[in-house]
Amino acid sequence: MIVTQTERLTVRLLDRSDAAFMLQLVNEPAFIRNIGDREVRDLAQAEAYTERSGPLSYERSGFGMYLVALRGSGERLGICGLISREGLSDVDIGYAFLQAHWGQGYALEAARAVLAHAHGALGLRRVLAITAPENRPSVRLLEQLGMQEQGLVDLPKSGGISRLFVSEPA
Q1: Would the pLDDT of 162 be above 80?
Q2: Helix residue ranges, H only, 9-157
Q3: Which of 31, 56, 155, 168 qualifies as a FRET site for 130, CA 20 to 30 Å off?
Q4: Is 93 left (phi over 0), alpha (psi -120 to 50) or beta?
Q5: What is the pLDDT of residue 62?
Q6: How far is CA 159 from its chain centroid?
Q7: How far apart are CA 38 and CA 163, in angstroms?
Q8: Which of 31, 36, 27 is nearest to 158 (CA)?
Q9: What are the residues whose beta carbons fall under 8 Å from the beta carbon of 89, sequence distance 6 or more?
Q10: pTM as predicted
């Protein structure tokens, strides 16, 4: 099911058919360095991880991580979605893309669409984002989204200090 679309991208619900893609994504060195090691090493673990990130989250919260694909071909590029994270007062936007697709504006395009969906269709007044302090590309993307930095936060199970950003539409 499609959540939102842009000129180039389809943002849709994750499902079991995305497990092999998720296995590849969560084991990329940049994912492990910037987001964390999810310890997903085989297809069965990827299926369980995909289920938690998508369908179980949709049932529990009404949102979760979404698959981002090229609109024409359906090629999977990454994920972008919304998370209820322990230690944060509001929903958090998150994203990760295969490194082969970096530098083409896909993450920004998807994040803009998901943020608009969060504020519009879901009626979320505030949306937060966190990133590792040294993750300059992610900081730049959050600034391009118009999110305002709120300082540093130390979240449970996050592996250290993160920079906190907030989006509140006027």
Answers
A1: yes
A2: 19-26, 29-34, 43-53, 55-61, 106-119, 136-144
A3: 56
A4: beta
A5: 95
A6: 18
A7: 21
A8: 36
A9: 126, 128
A10: 0.95
